[in-house]
Write a structure and sequence with these properties.
Number of domains: 2
CATH class of the largest domain: Alpha Beta
CATH architecture of the largest domain: 3-Layer(aba) Sandwich
Strand content: 15-25%
Order of helices and strands: EHEHEHEHEHEEEEHHHEE
Number of strands: 11
Helix content: 40-55%
Radius of gyration: 18 Å
Length: about 230
């Protein structure tokens, strides 16, 4: 089985060196890139299995790189930054980051997060045997093709957005807590910010609801979680 490839996009040499060392020891093939523009040029040639990305970079910042990646792939992204403010974490998650690490951090913990994110990413993109398409008056969800349509118009969803929507739609009116969704969609809550669920629900509403501020399908059950109303 081929080794997973990882791009470490980090402009602080000491951090990049230590992170790369730990990842290589863990069996990953690592490319260290100190500049955002150089990273973009390499990403245009090849998308790795995972990207570890600093937000503050010369050439092109991490937000812009994440946005570029999300327009083209579902490669897992772990953001690394010295910023601690909640709004920065939310902004990163809004862009589509899979996890968020604040400096200073333990290199071994980062390796554990990499393993967890890759484990969650593995096996996505395929419908389990017996999974059936779900069709409502204005919404259809097909797990075989992983296609979603609203009023007959195709909607582009990321892997996790589709997985969350299909899970909720398969259990109409059942309330799922954020921890439950993290477990079912991401494979566990140990290494992922619970705010990820909120961000994904918001993005799903923007894509499938005619009025995201007054959703018809993806409803919030205050103090509990979320449910799908058919």
């Amino acid at each position: 089985m081929p080794e997973n490839t990882i791009y470490v996009i980090e402009d602080e040499p000491s951090i990049a060196e230590v992170v790369s060392l730990y990842l290589r020891r863990a069996g990953y093939v690592v490319t260290s890139i100190p500049d955002g523009q150089v990273a973009l040029e390499l990403l245009e040639k090849r998308i790795p299995d995972l990207v570890i990305l600093d937000l503050m970079l010369p050439g092109m910042d991490g937000y812009s790189l994440t946005r570029w990646l999300r327009e083209r792939s579902d490669v897992p992204v772990i953001m690394v930054t010295s910023r601690r403010e909640e709004m920065d974490r939310i902004a990163g998650l809004e862009m589509g980051a899979d996890d968020y690490v604040v400096k200073p951090f333990s290199p071994q913990e980062l390796v554990s997060r990499v393993r967890a994110v890759l484990r969650r990413a593995g096996g996505t993109g395929k419908a389990a045997e017996g999974e059936q398409a779900i069709v409502f008056a204005n919404l259809s969800i097909d797990p075989a093709s992983r296609e979603v349509q609203t009023n007959g118009v195709p909607v582009e969803l990321t892997v996790k957005e589709f997985d969350m929507l299909y899970l909720l739609a398969c259990h109409p009116r059942q309330v799922f807590s954020r921890d439950h969704l993290l477990e079912r969609v991401w494979g566990g809550a140990d290494y992922i910010d619970p705010g990820t669920v909120t961000v994904h629900v918001r993005r799903l509403r923007e894509k499938i609801e005619s009025d995201p501020s007054a959703p018809r399908h993806l409803l919030t059950v205050w103090g509990v979680g979320y449910k799908f109303e058919p």
